[in-house]
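User: two proteins, same treatment. go.

Assistant:
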Amino acid sequence: MTDLSIIIPCLNAAGTLGPVLDAVEGAPTVEIIIVDGGSGDGTADVAEGRGATVLASAQGRGQQMRAGAVAARGPWLLFLHADTRLDPGWRLAAISFMADPDNLGRAAAYRLLLDSDHPAARRVERLVAWRCRLFGLPWGDQGLLIHRDFLAMLGGYPDQPLMEDVALVRRIGRRRLTLLDAAATTSAVRYDRDGWLRRPLRNLTLLILYFAGVPPRLLARMYG
């Protein structure tokens, strides 16, 4: 795995970043890069205390991931959200994917789990699995493993305020996406806050509007 750079865009993520880094620490990666979008809660201090490289960037997840990709030294890049913790099987799944030369022109994501015992969490996980299987649309909270040359050929992450992950995976295409046999556990706090029915419906509405051509900046205002 010495060919792998892990890139994590952050904004005020001091409370969630520790477990995310715990999950990837000890892996023989090239580096772990935290791209901070102007946090005021000590996110950079948490990252530096764990030995991660910290970059400053303008706010915006797409822009932050672009900055991380430029700075990364590894030929393989793994993009993670700052509230997404990889489960132990992530290493073996990543190694297997990177070892296959056919995957130089493909990308991979992890299976989504939510860190909640709420019965609705299992329904959301099944819906996400169905969306990935049918449409090839993993979102950013599932991670994205991709070779830097393939990412460059696709034009990288778009610098847009929302749906940057959807825009990229649509360029990749369903036939060039693999769902790895390992899980990424992401925070369910937004579902607890917004409602287990309301939030998935809002996400679906925004996705439909995006596919219909509504500009991402308008969607970002609707997203809040």
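Protein 2:
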Amino acid sequence: MPYRHPGSPSTKHALSGKPIGFYRPRGSKEVRHLIDEGFQAFNAARLSEACRIFSDKMLDPSEDTTIGLTIAGAMTPAGVGGCVVEMMDRGLVDFIISTGANLYHDLHHALNFTLHRGSPFVDDVELYAQGIIRIYDVLFPASVLLETDAYIRDFLVRERLEGPMATAELHYRMGLDLLKRYPGCEEHSVVARAAMVGVPLYTSSPGDSSIGMNLAYHAMLNESSLMIDPNRDVNEVCAIILAGKRNGCVILGGGSPKNFYLQGQPTLWEVYGIQKGGNDYFIQITTDQVVWGGLSGATPAEAVSWGKVNPGVLPDTVVAYCDSTIAFPLFCEYAIGSKNGQRPRKELVHRRAALLADLKRQATAARKSAPVTQAPIAQSPITQSSD
């Protein structure tokens, strides 16, 4: 008999839990007091440090920091998207790189489908038989997936999108469609709110989500020429970073979104020959460990060797080893309640073409000014004669 945690609900009542809503932080003074005075050591202290770096330095108007937020892990199914909505609305996040899954599951909220609080100890074979999907302790009917898929495919047909396109453009057009067809959804949808306030949403691996799956369907069965252009995504993110007076990131989890943001600095110096200097601020909330050697757990100190982080700013970098569903809402409460808890929005989604043009201009100038070199073919041990 499958193990069931004592006190967990039976599978037939799996969808009886409270609906998962989008929690919106409001700048609690009590939370700020707790973090300032109570979080004194270990990872509590690291989270406290992250809050102060973000609120006192990254949000300082004189710094004019361009802030990127990267999101990995199932944040929107857990309701954490409400924090992202509030941060975007207040101008505290300028652009976002997310897994496609987070944006897909965000659509459930936008379309007014219900995800339920549940238990991770229910019988998954029974869930499958009943058509119930589980993301750890988040439960919802499989029909939510099917109806969200139907919305995406209908959107693609309605908009008649064709040719190569950046993920930011796709998500912006989708957000506008949501705003038009589902008034008020911007209160509980990252995709809709981002379109409203001009925050670009990028996906580092667009094929690795149900949005990508439906794009593939659209290409094959509707014979559409629409395709995601990863080159444009790379260049747009680089252009945004290049234009920033100062640059900083808040990384939730790790994974592909983390690397996609951080590779912007090496792309500039290593590939385009433009010396930007690395990120000025680096905050990561993660459960990934450095000892396994993966990118998700790589520290800001290691990132210095790649030119991803400015070596002179390591005091303004921090990794808090925490569950993002716990730490990020606290982080947002602290930031929103700070003296810098509101900034003018950059609305970068509308500036992408101009920023790309500036990147091309600087890259062309760097190429023309670079010394002409010849690859040392004669010295290569592969091509040298054995005589």
